[in-house]
Structures are given as structure tokens and as C-alpha cells.
What we know:
The protein is α+β, with helices and mostly antiparallel strands. The chain has a single domain (4-149, 182-197), classed as Nucleoside Triphosphate Pyrophosphohydrolase, CATH 3.90.79.10. It has helices at 4-14, 76-88, 92-95, 145-149, 181-203, and strands at 29-37, 44-50, 62-63, 66-68, 96-101, 117-125, 137-144, 154-159, 167-174, 177-179. The strands form two sheets. Strands 1, 2, 3, 4, 5, 6 and 7 form a seven-stranded mixed sheet that branches. The longest helix is centred in the C-terminal third of the chain and has 23 residues, at 181-203.
Amino acid sequence: xxxxxxxxxxxxxxxxxxxxxxxxxxxxxxxxxxxxxxxxxxxxxxxxxxxxxxxxxxxxxxxxxxxxxxxxxxxxxxxxxxxxxxxxxxxxxxxxxxxxxxxxxxxxxxxxxxxxxxxxxxxxxxxxxxxxxxxxxxxxxxxxxxxxxxxxxxxxxxxxxxxxxxxxxxxxxxxxxxxxxxxxxxxxxxxxxxxxxxxxxxxx
Length: 204
């Protein structure tokens, strides 16, 4: 985890306080982990495909490791680390380093839990980190940040409605997996920050 890009990313995250969404009384809290491991030419990010589960609004979606807060979690960072450990067998609190927080997000779809606030955190983990998915995760994919920054990674997701025309949502193509919704919004913020960091380093 001595990759100099991690130190630069940590500084970039510290330079811009993350947006904190206002949550009303009784609002649910969740957290996700952006796990980065050293690689060339750019670090790799872990994405997961959630297992198909009845009643889960994100069933089968591409996502980041994470989930709802537990009363035992001391804070949102602990939630992200615990959920990552449970879902993919990587505990960034024990085997990684917190680099910083991204802007909080909330579901925009009526299918998502009302009032839920999701806190994303960026962690650096070792180059030997490997995902060991549990029953909640159908697939795990390490993908280079450079791949997600390519213009050809930009695509759309067509959401079929029971009635009327399909709705189009911005998305990323991650080696054939379509990333949209809240995960797309979180990754967009991260990728913008990362690209700016790389541009500033190149110009210095």
C-alpha cells in the first residue's frame, strides 16, 4: 500500500469535505467500500454483482461491497468495513487503510428504501487482496480505474417499465457488466476526483 497514487488520492479527498446528506428522524443508514489495490497502469477497483434475492431492490445489480448500518457499528466507516468483510472477505479496517470519504447519496428510484442515506468510503488494500464472495454476492470483479475512465466505458442502462417506454439511465460498461444507479453516481464522483488528481500530477 505504498503506492504514491494512494497518498495523492488521500490528499485529494482531504482537500474537499464530502457532502453529507440530511437524514430525517428514522432514516436508514448504509455504507459502501471502494476497495483499491495497487496495479499497473492504475489501481484496480472491486465491483460486485449482487445475488438475485426476492424483495431486494438491488437484486442482481452491480454494486460496491456494503450494506445497512448495524447498532454494533461505531460509525459509517465501521459499517463499510464490516460489510466488505462479510460480503467479499476483505476487511479494510484490518488489512487496508482508509483514504477518505466521498459524497453521500440517496436512492432516487421509488423502488429503493425511502430515506436511506449511503456513505461511500475509499480504502487502499494490498496488491494480494482477493475477493471471496459470500451468498449475497454472485460475482466479484477487479477492474482498472483506467478502464472505467475510457470513453468507451460510458454507456446507458435501459430500465423497462411495466407500461410506457423504457427509461434511460447513464451507466458504465465494466467488461460487459452494466453499472448504473447509485453505484454509477458514486463512481462518477470518484472517477472525476481521480482524473483531476492524475491531471494535476502530470502538470506539476
